[in-house]
Structure formats: C-alpha cells, structure tokens
Write a structure and sequence with these properties.
- This protein has 500 residues and is an alpha/beta fold.
- Helix 2 crosses helix 5.
- It has 15 helices and 20 strands.
- Strand 5 and strand 6 form a beta hairpin.
Length: 500
C-alpha cells in the first residue's frame, strides 16, 4: 500500500478512525503520531483554502476524549498544525460538540477545530473529527485532507499551543439554556435528582459543571472519572450492559431521570424513574414530542431502521411527518438541512443510535444538548405534577425484535451486497410481499411487523432488522426472509437460523 492509500484507509465516512495503541495480539497500529501530525498539517492547508485566510492567521482548537493515546496524539496534532503557522488552542478533555461550539463562541472564535476521539470504540482505537464555523466536515472533505496528508513531512519540533477555557464556556452555555427553559431562577433544578453515567469518557462535566451548579442532586452518578481503559462498561448508549448500569443506578437513586453519554458526548440515551429506557425509537419519540408544540406539522428525519410504531406516534399522535433516510448521522443531518433549504420545516435529525441534531442548535449532533432538552421538559413537567413519560404515552413498542449481522464471505463484498439486495427485492415483490419505499436497503411490511435488509456503511456485513407484535409473527418473518436468501451462498445467513 502506498503512502496516499495508507492515509485514505483511515477514512471512516466523515471522520478519521484507526488503531492507535499496540495491544498484545491486537490489530496493527495505523493511526500513528506521524499520521496524525501530517493529517493535522493537511487540515491547516485545507482550512486556509476554504476560509481564504493565510495559515498564520488561522485559530484552531484541539480537544480529545479520555483515551490512553490522547496526550501523545494531541502533541502530534499540535506540532503538525503549528508547523504550518496556525495558532493552536489546546482545550484538553473535551466533548465533540464543544469543539464545534468553540468556532462560534466569541471568546474562542476558532476558524476550525479538531477533536481526537473514536467514539465508543475499544481502547486501542482513536480518530479525528474536524469542524469549521459552518459544520462538521463531510466525506469528500476528509478524502481531500487525507489525500493531501501524504504531501506533508512529519513535523517533529516540540511546538506549543495556548490553553483554552472552552469547556467552561460550553458548560455555561448549557446552564443558560436550562435556566431560560425552566424559567424559575438561578437554581431551576432544585429538588430534582439526575443520575449521569459518563462511562469514564468525557461526559463527567455534565454532572459537575452543568447540573450541580443549577441545584440538581447528582448523587448516584456513575463513572464520571475519565479513564481510557473503560473499566466498567463500553461507553455506548446502544450497549446493553451500559444501559443496564444506568437503569439500575436510576432506580437505586430514586432519581427523576438518568442520562448516559458515549465517550465524546455526541450521543445520549435516558432512563425514566421506573427504569424504562428512553433509547432508540423512544428517544426519537421524546425529542419529537418536546419539539412538536414549537414546530407543528413539521418533518422529523430519522435513520432507516426506525419502527412502524414510531411512525404512527409521530404522525397520528403528534401531527408530524416522519421521513426515514439513510443510516449515518451525517446522512440524516444533511437530509434535514436539505429539506429546510427547500422550505420543509425540519427541526430534528436523529438516529436510533442516539445521534440527535436540532435546527435550533446548528444541526450539531450533541448528546449534552439533547439531555438539556429532556431535563427542561422534566423540570417543567414536575411543576404541574406530570411525569416526563406522559409525553410519549402514545408510543407503542414491538415486544419482539431482532438485529442480526450477516457476513459476506466473498471478495468484492459491496457489489455482491448490491446483487443480494436487488434479488431480495425482486423475489419479495414476486411473492406478493409489501416492499415499502426506503432510501437504503430493502424494507418489507408484514402483518403486525416489518423487516429490513441493508448494506453496512463500511464493512462486509449485511445488517438485518425485524420487529413483530408476537413471537410467532417474528418467527414467520424470519422464515420468509430466509427463504428469499437461499440462493446467495456467499451470504452467511446462519444468524437467522440461530436466532430462529
């Protein structure tokens, strides 16, 4: 692999991901200090071209999550950017959304920013996310930066960055949103107990610097101390063990709300006082219900695997439109931006993964901001003796569901996956099944349920989702789907057989 291809192999859609830490029997380290140094230098060049500013006039923020490789890679990135003449501001342990907000706060006014994070991935991984004052970078921007990175020499000088108070400014920004939203003085959360699970990532600030100064009781919170070993559970709101931890903590603390973040705080889920999880379809429903009074009749953009019950809730209970789109948080956000530009009011772009971006917050996928919206709703509901859960009481859930991942065993997996999807759709229609519109993959509506087969964004995997109102109904769906896939020998359908 030549140098250019080596850099391009680090692309993960609209950001950079790689193995940064050597572990015994671990994967090959490809996100080295050398690579980060040169990618950071290339970002300066890209930012200079896109802002019209000379590199020496650029102000660039740099933050990181709690990973073990954070300090070494931060130093490498600082050297890479400063070697090109940019002034670098070191923000320390940060959240990804805060790094974008640093481009907008007048006290920081970064021209661009870089966040070192690999979200919820294992401790040996790390990555880079990039922002301008407009938004996070798109896939084509990352490709351009990585292609150019090969042209830069490694800058080994020990250059310095200026310290930035970004996280203090960001916490203040969130506190002010709560004060304004609850409108009951400088301690609007007095009497509320809110449990936070930061998963030993970067979200501990939310309890200490946002909630506690506003009067909230955060006793019972979990794993607020940053630790790149992630010793307690995967810092991921989609992880079953993580959700069990925040559910148990919420119940034990007799809390009014539990909130859980991923490592870099751009995703979140929640738990109600009785232990019910507000995640996946439920977090979409709750955020939509909170926004519906301000945006009546508006459109909510979600990813493709949301349930039919969610559509019913959004459209029949809230009077909104549900627009399913492609998986990938940037895909969902960009679709919402496009709809608004065309005059279709779209206040929310959100995935079942917990990535949620609001029109009122720059379409920034910000887990802490979503938590703020839930907390405001909970505080206001408590004033009238209502429970936060009341706003989604019309949401039904499918008692039986599955999410399976089927491997493509041959080379050229993308072309083979497209072939499978085409044949799957044709056979479904030939058998009279109800194939419904989908912007990716193939979705089939069954009596009392649905199923969807699609391609993974990056891997030789075909994810499959199904829901039904009964165990027998789910078994029938799985059997019918299995029958539609029998001729595709290079697709490992054993997960269907094992589940069924």
């Amino acid at each position: 692999m030549d140098v250019k291809q080596g850099f391009l192999s680090l692309q993960n859609g609209s950001d950079v991901r790689g193995v940064a830490l050597a572990l015994e029997d671990g994967a090959f380290v490809n996100l080295t200090e050398n690579a980060v140094n040169r990618i950071a230098a290339s970002f300066v060049s890209w930012l200079s071209k896109n802002t019209g500013k000379a590199p020496s006039d650029l102000r660039i923020g740099l933050g990181h999550d709690s990973r073990l490789t954070a300090t070494a890679l931060a130093n490498a990135a600082i050297n890479g950017m400063a070697s090109q003449g940019a002034t670098v501001f070191y923000c320390g342990l940060s959240s990804t959304p805060a790094m974008f907000m640093g481009t907008l706060f007048p006290e920081t006014a970064f021209d661009g920013s870089v966040m070192l994070t690999a979200s919820h991935l294992p401790k040996d991984r790390n990555g880079m996310k990039f922002f301008t004052r407009k938004s996070g970078l798109d896939k084509q921007d990352i490709t351009e930066i990585l292609e150019s990175a090969a042209l830069f020499e490694y800058a080994a000088r020990n250059l310095k960055a200026e310290d930035s108070p970004l996280m203090k400014l960001y916490a203040k920004y969130l506190r002010e949103k709560i004060i304004s939203g609850v409108n009951s003085g400088e301690k609007p959360l007095l009497g509320l107990r809110i449990v936070v699970d930061a998963g030993n990532g970067g979200g501990g600030f939310f309890a200490k610097d946002v909630l506690e100064p506003l009067g909230a009781d955060t006793s019972g919170s979990l794993f607020l101390t940053p630790d790149g070993e992630f010793p307690n559970h995967e810092p991921n709101p989609e992880n079953k063990e993580a959700m069990n931890a925040i559910r148990d903590a919420t119940i034990q603390a007799n809390a009014d709300l539990g909130v859980i973040f991923d490592t870099d705080v751009d995703r979140m889920s929640a738990v109600l006082p009785d232990g019910r999880e507000v995640s996946r379809n439920a977090i979409i429903a709750m955020m939509s219900a909170i926004l519906a009074p301000k945006y009546p009749g508006s459109t909510i953009v979600t990813d493709s695997i949301t349930s039919d019950h969610l559509t019913d809730f959004l459209e029949k209970h809230l009077g909104l439109r549900h627009h399913r789109f492609k998986r990938g948080y940037k895909n969902v956000i960009n679709e919402a931006v496009r709809l608004n530009a065309e005059g279709v009011t779209t206040p929310l772009a959100i995935e079942t993964s917990g990535h949620g971006a609001l029109l009122e917050n720059y379409f920034l996928d910000d887990g802490a901001y979503m938590a703020v919206k839930l907390i405001i709703a909970a505080a206001n509901a408590s004033k009238t003796g209502e429970a936060l859960s009341s706003i989604i009481k019309g949401l039904k859930t499918a008692p039986y569901e599955c999410e399976l991942r089927m491997k493509i065993k041959c080379g050229g997996f993308y072309d083979y996956g497209i072939q499978v999807l085409k044949g799957f759709e044709e056979q479904a229609k030939a058998k009279g099944l109800n194939v419904v519109q989908s912007y990716e993959g193939v979705r089939i509506s069954f009596p009392g349920g649905w199923a969807m087969l699609r391609m993974s964004l990056h891997d030789p995997i075909m994810p499959f989702n199904a829901e039904s109102g009964s165990q027998d109904g789910l078994a029938k769906i799985l059997n019918q789907v299995r029958g539609l896939l029998t001729e595709y020998c290079e697709l490992d359908t054993s997960p269907i057989d094992l589940y069924n």
